[in-house]
Specification:
The chain is α+β, with helices and mostly antiparallel strands. It has two domains: 219 residues, no CATH class; 250 residues, no CATH class. The protein has 17 helices and 17 strands. The strands form six sheets. Strands 3-1-6-7 form a four-stranded antiparallel β-sheet, with no helix packed on it. A four-stranded mixed β-sheet has the order 4-17-13-16, with no helix packed on it. The protein is elongated, with a radius of gyration of 32 Å. The N terminus is likely disordered.
């Protein structure tokens, strides 16, 4: 094969791989005028209960062909998504109004009670068109608010009203090329993407770039719907006023459902169609959070530098400049951290539990870093539902090897190289946060050489002098610094979960995670040094709890272990 053929093959592979790594999540679909568009329904969700329910658990209209589940990945299932087909049907670029959907059966006592309960619990209906969730705009105090989905109904003066008429607006972008779309993204790069279209169709079409819904509560004339079939036109104008409600639900009476749809051409490009859902709000708050964390880091870094440069280094330099006779004399006059040389590496209480927690902390921390990094790079777009949770589980399973390795190696280090009990530690680490691969990591950890201590441990433990204040009080107080680093970003994450919004600022989250790791390491290191200076050699568990739990505690423990090992390896004390 010649150089030209190899070059052409290489370019073809690169070009094809570009398809696989297109970040927004799915390829654009080209629809010709008149092509059918099907709306799907997701689970009913509530910011009040956080308990999802199937759309068809309420007396809504069902499609003629029957209810069918869409293929779902593991992440969607774990998040409670249940995507199903719906009776709402559109035709590309064909505006329709007063479309009769169905008339429900007379509401039974159970259905009436369930509808009132779902309205009280603020349940939302979530619709999807071409992988885009329906978005709803409301005005409040002059500000435009965006919501995904619409409420089942509303309660006004102890009367329950149902939104039984939906006004849809589909934003479309004209698509002129027939085989390959060259669409400008939000940056300077040009993306080349294949399209999904009907076979043999060369007609110009459109892409769906927006999906909006306005819910209305409308009273219908029962005499006009008795003989109507699904998708026939309701023979009376329907006025959809989102600011007024007029369809109260009553036990023993049916509910009529209708809808209308309008198509509108938009300048929104296909790669930018998620911008309406991901529009950044509160970016100044994110930067404030990062600045706040940087100030904490600089403050702690100053303390660490003082410890190393002015205290530890000064002591070590003085010690190295002395002759052997003077060193012996100095050893007899030791003070502070140098007094615990024979106890600093004494095995902690409950060493197996500590090893298990550290191993699982490494696993969780590794999963968080890798997942957030991939999400920040765009590989886990909100357009691909469930990929974030699926990715987290995948990385967590793989990193079970790291958990077993760290847990068993730390166990052997505490036991000064003794292999006894490593299988039990690996098994317990696997059961603490169940992952079978932890046993494999434990096997590698048992084969790895343990970390040797730089000093010997005395047979008789040294008595710890009485302290003016409980050491655990300082440990608990130290946890406020890592929390202060994370709490603003944590607020946005919790708001996204409880308010049913999409969290997407993974770039900010990755920066905050790195800052959190640095803060945890510095806090634990400073605290460990303070305990050693007052001759408290029981630093193992305190360094773990100083940075809260579990991944952050692991960061604190590992940084303190490195610090203590480095400190006592730098000076020869007997």
């Amino acid at each position: 094969m010649g150089h030209v053929e190899i070059w052409v093959l290489t370019m073809w592979v690169i070009f094809q791989s570009g398809y696989g790594f297109y970040l927004p999540g799915s390829y654009p679909h080209k629809y010709v005028v008149g092509d059918p568009l099907s709306v799907k329904v997701n689970s009913l969700t509530s910011i009040d209960t956080e308990m999802p329910f199937s759309y068809y658990s309420l007396p809504f209209c069902k499609p003629k062909e029957g209810v069918k589940d869409s293929a779902e990945n593991l992440g969607e299932l774990l998040m409670g998504d249940r995507i199903e087909n719906s009776p709402y049907k559109f035709k590309m670029y064909v505006n329709e109004s007063e479309i009769f959907l169905c008339q429900s059966k007379k509401l039974s006592a159970d259905d009436f009670k369930l509808l009132k309960k779902r309205i009280d619990e603020m349940y939302q209906v979530n619709l999807i068109l071409d992988n885009l969730p329906a978005i709803r705009y409301t005005k409040k105090e002059g500000f435009m608010l965006r919501w995904t989905g619409y409420p089942v109904g509303v309660k006004v003066q102890n009367v329950y009203y149902l939104f039984n008429h939906l006004k849809f607006k589909v934003l479309i972008h004209k698509y002129e090329e027939t085989s390959v779309a060259r669409v400008m993204g939000t940056g300077d790069a040009v993306e080349v993407m294949p399209t999904v279209t009907k076979e043999g169709s060369d007609m110009p079409g459109h892409m769906v770039v927006g999906f909006e819904v306005v819910p209305c509560s409308v009273v219908h004339d029962g005499n006009l719907v008795n003989k109507l079939k699904m998708y026939e036109k309701y023979q009376s104008p329907i006025k959809c006023d989102p600011n007024a409600v007029s369809m109260p639900i009553k036990e023993g009476e049916p509910i009529v459902f209708t809808y209308e749809v309008a198509f509108e051409e938009s300048d929104i490009k296909w790669p930018s169609r998620w911008d309406a859902y991901l529009k950044m709000e509160g970016s100044k708050v994110h930067w404030f959070s990062i600045l706040n964390s940087l100030l904490v880091i600089i403050f702690l870094a100053g303390i660490v530098l003082v410890i190393f440069l002015r205290t530890v280094r000064r002591d070590l330099t003085r010690y190295e400049e002395l002759d052997k006779e003077s060193q012996v004399q100095m050893n007899e006059e030791l003070s502070g951290w140098k007094l615990v040389v024979g106890d600093v590496f004494r095995a902690p209480s409950n060493p197996a539990l500590l090893c298990i927690l550290i191993g699982d902390g490494v696993q969780i921390l590794g999963m968080a870093i890798v997942t957030i990094l991939f999400a920040a790079l765009g590989f886990m777009s909100p357009a691909s539902r469930g990929t974030l949770i699926t990715g987290m589980l995948f990385f967590y399973l793989i990193l079970g090897i790291a958990a077993g390795y760290v847990a068993v190696r730390l166990w052997r280090t505490i036991g000064c190289g003794d292999h006894k009990g490593w299988i039990s530690v690996a098994w317990k680490a696997a059961c603490f946060f169940p992952v079978p691969l932890t046993l494999l990591g434990g096997y590698f950890g048992a084969k790895a050489h343990h970390i040797e201590y730089p000093v010997r441990t005395n047979q008789i433990p040294r008595e710890i002098p009485a302290q003016k204040y409980p050491s655990w009080l300082l440990v608990l107080g130290a946890g406020t610094l890592p929390f202060g680093t994370l709490f603003i970003e944590l607020f946005f994450i919790m708001s996204s979960i409880w308010m049913g919004r999409v969290y997407y600022v993974f770039g900010f989250l990755f920066i905050v995670l790195i800052l959190l790791v640095v803060v945890c390491a510095e806090v634990s290191l400073v605290l460990t040094y303070m305990h050693l200076c007052v001759e408290d050699w029981k630093w193992w568990w305190k360094s773990f709890f100083a940075s809260v739990m579990l991944a952050t505690g692991t960061v604190g423990f590992l940084s303190s272990f490195w610090f203590v090992h480095y400190l006592f390896a730098s000076v020869k004390l007997d």
